[in-house]
């Protein structure tokens, strides 16, 4: 399996993206902003297809759009909460525009499938370096804001009173989410970003009640799901993305059952 | 007033407007150090707003607020604050310890790692409210009263001189209410804290508070319970006829035939709700 160059690159890329998705996803789930993550990926689709149309790299187009949208979402902050319909309409428009751009760019029909469902086996060495650099920068930025972000996520009013610059931290975080979403879409596609960003983090928060262990577990699960997906895809020749979604769902629902059983045990004891 | 000790909070001619509405106008009062003040008033009377102004989160239109001799500024470590409990805490699956600890140096940049000193400090704060064992459990599995105790210990983390407690009794049954009041009273005595404790109802605080701060009609009156909670004083404050009935060690504040406090209790949405005078719910 590792005899092939593209497989080694795919493992490295999936690993980089899984670590970033696991850590960022943990805070995303904690803050109840999973829908925002989903929304960003749709906006990214427009950016990617637009970039292809103008002969630019789809990753650059996607990044540009998600980062701009993430920044805007962070600034709007509270004003966006409860605006599910408005956000949903923006998403539909974003996907619709993406479709229009693809319509004008008829040369590659497979481009659409790759963007929507991911193509980890198609990641080039150059793209891998870009992914790794961006992931490093994002994790570095997250490490700087992690402490106030955790405080702000758990108790916004108290954090504000204690001098946490709330809107700055929230905006910085959404910008980091935007980068993570764009990276994640390279592996599992814009439609399935949820599976790697939200699935592992949500499962982790069912399995442990400690913050530190939660982050570690979310990262471990994301890594296991991404690499497990690649191995299973190699063995079965089915799409990698399918296997990642299957493993992610298995981990999440397994965690739910474990959590339920644990509670019952605790109430009996 | 014979005032030997330093003032914990001084408001001089304070006017505050929120969204075009004047919430407080020309408010004057001084809270002494180590004093337990019960803050009362109907919804929209500005209790939360006043606390946020003392925290430096809301600007004053006129006048000045000083806290322990310094102008009110955001992030003052001398103030311990317990915001009004919101539902979202009940969904947090982390342990109480981790939640309390998130506030320890929570405004500093970097990773949320605590030093040995900070960990000891968290344990100390939990011990002060007798919640060290409780804090091992996830917040989501606690009762409302247990969560309140953890939030109270969190307010102690910076070793404050002044505690601002925003409606800590809300949604608690009477037994748990008196439990919370007792703990706060003990903390006030042991640590020599000034306490500003807002509540919808006067009675749970009667034995504990030193003086009462009553807000109404944009103004505030601070004084002994027997001086402030009287028909004439409250009528002047509200600008309408208020009757005060004392019954078996309890006090009822009535607007006409209606119990003002009981009525206010039915709308627990902080300071943003509409004004209301009376309802069809009469308590006898």
Please give a structural write-up:
The complex is a heterodimer of chains A (269) and B (284). Chain A has 269 residues and is an all-alpha fold. Chain A has a single domain (5-193), classed as Orthogonal Bundle (ABC transporter involved in vitamin B12 uptake, BtuC). Helices cover 83% and strands 0% of the residues of chain A. Chain A has helices at residues 5-30, 34-53, 58-76, 84-104, 110-117, 125-154, 156-161, 166-188, 193-197, 199-207, 211-236, 240-268. In chain A, α2 (34-53) packs parallel to α4 (84-104) and α3 (58-76) runs antiparallel to α8 (166-188). Chain B has a domain at 89-154. Chain B is 26% helix and 26% strand. In chain B, the strands form three sheets. A six-stranded mixed beta sheet of chain B has the order 6-7-8-3-9-10, with helices on both faces. In chain B, strands 2-1-4-5 form a four-stranded antiparallel beta sheet, with helices on one face. In chain B, α3 crosses α4. The radius of gyration of chain B is 19 Å and the shape is globular. In chain B, 44% of the residues are buried. Mean pLDDT of chain B is 87; it is low at 265-284. Chains A and B meet through α6 and α7 of A and β6 of B.
């Amino acid at each position: 399996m590792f005899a092939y160059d593209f497989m080694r690159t795919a493992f490295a890329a999936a690993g980089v993206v899984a670590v970033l998705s696991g850590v960022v996803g943990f805070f995303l789930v904690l803050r109840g902003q999973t829908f925002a993550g989903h929304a960003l990926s749709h906006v990214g689709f427009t950016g990617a297809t637009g970039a292809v149309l103008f002969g630019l790299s789809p990753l650059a187009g996607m990044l540009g759009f998600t980062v701009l949208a993430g920044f805007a979402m962070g600034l709007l902050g509270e004003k966006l909460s409860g605006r599910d319909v408005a956000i949903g309409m923006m998403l539909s428009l974003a996907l619709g525009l993406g479709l229009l751009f693809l319509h004008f760019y008829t040369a590659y029909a497979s481009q659409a499938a790759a963007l929507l469902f991911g193509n980890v086996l198609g990641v080039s060495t150059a793209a891998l370096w870009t992914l790794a650099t961006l992931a490093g920068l994002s994790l570095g930025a997250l490490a700087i804001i992690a402490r106030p972000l955790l405080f702000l996520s758990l108790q916004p009013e108290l954090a504000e009173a204690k001098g946490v610059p709330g809107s700055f931290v929230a905006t910085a975080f959404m910008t980091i989410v935007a980068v993570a979403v764009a990276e994640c879409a390279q592996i599992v596609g814009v439609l399935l970003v949820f599976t790697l960003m939200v699935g592992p983090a949500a499962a982790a928060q069912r399995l442990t009640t400690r913050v530190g262990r939660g982050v570690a577990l979310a990262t471990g699960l994301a890594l296991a799901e991404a690499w497990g997906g690649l191995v299973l895809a190699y063995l079965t020749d089915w799409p990698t993305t399918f296997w990642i979604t299957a493993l992610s769902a298995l981990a999440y629902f397994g965690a739910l059952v474990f959590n339920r059983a644990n509670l019952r045990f605790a109430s009996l004891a | 007033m014979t005032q030997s000790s330093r003032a914990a909070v001084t408001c001089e001619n304070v006017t505050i407007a929120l969204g075009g509405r004047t919430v407080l106008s020309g408010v004057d009062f001084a809270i002494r150090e180590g004093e337990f003040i019960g803050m009362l008033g109907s919804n929209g009377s500005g209790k939360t707003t006043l606390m946020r102004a003392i925290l430096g989160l809301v600007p004053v239109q006129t006048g000045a607020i000083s806290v322990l001799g310094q102008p009110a500024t955001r992030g003052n470590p001398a103030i311990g604050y317990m915001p009004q409990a919101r539902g979202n805490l009940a969904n947090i699956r982390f342990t109480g310890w981790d939640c309390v600890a998130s506030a320890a140096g929570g405004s500093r940049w970097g990773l949320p790692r605590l030093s040995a000193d900070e960990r000891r400090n968290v344990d100390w704060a939990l011990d002060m409210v007798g919640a060290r064992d409780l804090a091992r459990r996830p917040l989501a599995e606690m009762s409302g009263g247990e969560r309140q105790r953890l939030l109270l210990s969190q307010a102690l983390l910076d070793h404050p001189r002044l505690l601002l407690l925003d409606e800590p009794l809300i949604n608690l049954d009477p037994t748990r209410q008196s439990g919370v009041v007792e703990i706060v009273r003990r903390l006030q005595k042991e640590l020599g804290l000034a306490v500003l404790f807002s509540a919808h109802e006067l009675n749970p605080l009667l034995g504990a508070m030193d003086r009462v701060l009553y807000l109404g009609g944009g103004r505030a009156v601070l004084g002994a319970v027997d001086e402030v909670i009287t028909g004439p004083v409250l009528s002047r404050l509200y600008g309408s006829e208020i009757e005060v009935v004392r019954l078996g060690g309890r006090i009822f504040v009535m607007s006409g035939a209606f119990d003002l406090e009981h009525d206010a209790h039915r709308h627990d949405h902080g300071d943003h709700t509409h004004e209301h005078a009376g309802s069809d719910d009469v308590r006898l």
